[in-house]
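Chapter summary example.
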Amino acid sequence: MAAALPRIALSLAPVLAFALALYFLDSFRLVAPRSLARALLAGVAAALACLALNPLLGAWLGAGPLFLRRYLAPLVEESAKAAYIIVLLRGRRLGFAVDAAITGFAVGTGFALVENIEYLRALGPASPMIWIIRGFGTAVMHGAVTAIMAIMAKSRAERRGRFGIASVLPGLAVAIFLHSLYNHVFLNPVLATLAIVAGFPLLIAVTFERSEHSLRQWMEAGFAGDTDLLAMLNSGTFLRSPSGRYLESLKERLPGEVLADMLCYLRNYVELAIRAKAVLLARENGIDLPNDSGTAERFAELRFLERAIGPIGRRLLSPLMHTSPRDLWQIHMLKDSRSPRPGA
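The structure predicted for these 344 residues follows.
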């Protein structure tokens, strides 16, 4: 086992270093550590599934090793990695291209860890160049193409204003194509490795710059709107505003206690949205805000009020609330960031 450690390091260290670099380059810390861990585990699960599925599909289709490597494996593996990204997008857990890229790369990293360990077991002792290529090339390729797919899926969902499977298909097709291209023997593996190592950081740098600019604009606009709404709610002037008059107009349709619960729900939601933006602004400036017990209480009250007003009440409130995918994402982000601290 000791003799295999250098080969393990060569095959796994580069992709892990890339994943950690992406995480620390994100000044807003959009991806919580446990979310990163879940993405890694999702990649591990995808790899284990593909290790079992690829040979079965190859035998069923009568595909030879070359066809399996060039075409079938890229299709199956990229689809398996995309499954977790689809779950996150459907659940509005990815707010910007940055966290989509980090999460996608983490899924690819988990996949590469399993695949390289399996190659190490199957090949045994091999040239150090093989493990350098697998470490800097194949492993990083798995992370890079999944990150590209996640970025494209998130961007397309934003342009469409909603998420659907159609949002994922172009990015998935690109990921399958790049993976297949990498697996073709006519592409020199050393040149392919150099292209990935040189090209992927450039893509990520552009993505980070554009996404963080978009995040700042969204926060500035949203923070002003949320604080104005909360001020009206707290001062008692809300019911004299157009939004308040809309809520008053529902008196004939809903019991008074339901309207009161809807007003409380709106206040809690806005307070959590402001807290989420404050957490992001603090992270950008290198400050990690301590856990707020009041935030946990607001989440508990929000869940209680959701049940009290029911789906009809939530639908009637939707015109008064910011419920875009990004606005809903910030609530999930705040919930995920409330992990207890040691000694807390």
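To summarize the output: The chain has eleven helices and no strands.
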